[in-house]
Design goal:
Layout: H1 3-12, H2 17-22, H3 34-43, H4 45-76, H5 80-90, H6 101-110, H7 117-140, H8 145-153, H9 158-169, H10 171-186, H11 190-196, H12 205-208, H13 220-255
Helix pairs in contact: 1-13, 3-13, 4-7, 4-10, 5-7, 7-10, 10-13
Length: about 260
């Protein structure tokens, strides 16, 4: 069932509108890449892919910089304050994404970062931070205390313990956070559209592809080709990290 939509998009990328509606699942008569070239040229998908890569990679770096130390502190801490902070992160799951749209818009305008990728890079990690902190905290709690105590007896400080003891032992958790955050950041549409807008030089791939659709006349072959372009990085990441992703997600599910 998962392969059927991908097959439909691929075969439609080589067809004209008449062929798509006459035989939606039929094979194309030719394998010309003209539709792909048109989609890239008309919507500037080359720039859009580059912008999405920049936003996604920087956002992933920010979320690791914030979530790893926070999870380390929560995993080692005890008491009511630590429990309350962990519950506060858990409450982040209850906030619908669209509910923060207006405050986010006003904040971007007040900071002078409206219509910039910088604000999106700073904002997107906040949307995934609750899940990242909760997941990494559960993984870090599985690290045996004896290992940390042995390191401290050798004179290791907090930073050394985090980098040399905890991080190598919670790689599956970090991979889980990276994969889930990558999917969320790459596919994000609403805030990228509102904050960055239609500027061709800065818009992301998810904002660029819908511009291939017209209210008067849409070439669905070109639109399908543009959609396939958006999926290529996702499938590439999945192909590279398939085994580690499945193991990490199962491990994360068990621990949470």
């Amino acid at each position: 069932m998962l392969l059927l939509p991908l097959y439909y998009l691929l075969v439609s990328s080589f067809k004209d509108n008449g062929d798509i509606f006459a035989a939606p699942l039929g094979l194309p008569d030719s394998l010309s890449l003209r539709k792909f070239a048109t989609s890239v040229h008309d919507a500037r998908l080359d720039l859009a892919v580059l912008n999405s890569v920049i936003v996604t990679v920087l956002s992933l770096a920010v979320i690791l910089l914030l979530a790893v130390p926070a999870a380390y502190a929560l995993a080692r801490a005890s008491g009511k304050v630590a429990a309350a902070i962990e519950r506060a992160f858990s409450l982040g799951f209850l906030i619908p994404t669209f509910a923060a749209l207006v405050p986010t818009f006003l904040l971007a305008a007040q900071l002078g970062l409206f219509h910039t990728r910088t604000f999106i890079v700073l904002f997107l990690p906040a949307t995934s931070l609750p899940l990242a902190v909760v997941l990494l905290t559960q993984f870090m709690r599985t690290v045996p205390h004896e290992v940390e105590e042995a390191a401290r007896m050798d004179g290791a400080g907090n930073w050394t313990v985090l980098v040399r003891i905890y991080l190598p032992m919670v790689v599956p958790g970090i991979v889980t956070v990276l994969i889930l955050s990558f999917l969320a950041f790459w596919n994000e549409y609403l805030y990228s559209l509102v904050i960055i807008g239609p500027d061709e030089a800065q818009r992301t791939i998810q904002v660029a592809v819908p511009t291939l659709r017209s209210s008067l006349s849409t070439d669905f072959g070109v639109l399908s080709a543009g959609t396939v372009v958006t999926l290529i990085p996702v499938y590439a990441v999945y192909a590279v990290l398939q085994r580690r992703m499945e193991g990490a997600l199962m491990g994360g599910a068990v621990k949470v």
